[in-house]
Design brief:
Elements lengths: L2 H18 L25 E7 L6 E9 L2 E9 L6 E2 L1 E4 L39 E2 L6 E8 L15 E5 L16 E9 L2
Antiparallel strand pairs: 1-2, 1-9, 2-3, 3-7, 4-6, 5-8, 8-9
Amino acid sequence: MNRPLRTAPLLLLLAACAATAPREDTAGAPHATTAATPARPQASRAEIALAPASASLVSGKLTAVPMGAGVHLAGEVGGLAPGAAHAIHVHEKGDCSAVDASSAGAHFNPDGAPHGRAGQGPHHAGDMDNLSADARGVARVNAHLTGVTLGDGGARDIAGRAVIVHAQPDDYRSQPAGNAGARVACGVIRVVR
């Protein structure tokens, strides 16, 4: 009757060792997951459904796909002032629950860089060029974020973060967010698997 009790600690020890031992792939090399190594391959696509914020009528739909050394965003945003320019950024949190979208936090900035214009010196990883609305108040998005990933779980992954459209254009200088004004639309970057 005591025999099962004596083997129980041994079984627990073996189970713990098996749970923490490195896994081997087919080539026999152990898998290691570090902060520098993505936990999984990038996703092939994500969708962003932009919903109004701050009592605006701005909405839209974007797609995000890995491309080159980054992620490309494309789609349309409507409900903007005709002929106006508007800032658009990736923000650090995928939370659009606040009426003014403040729940999305600051710009996505894993490097701690100052705000600026993408491709022209230091800038946040989530900084993009301003959108230009046409005469109907629709802006076409065609933006490329360099140095970010999509859905791999790494430090530069934008999946699960928010895209914010602002009421004003980004001046690309003012800290910390380019003096872009109210957040008029917010959408979470959702991976489509």
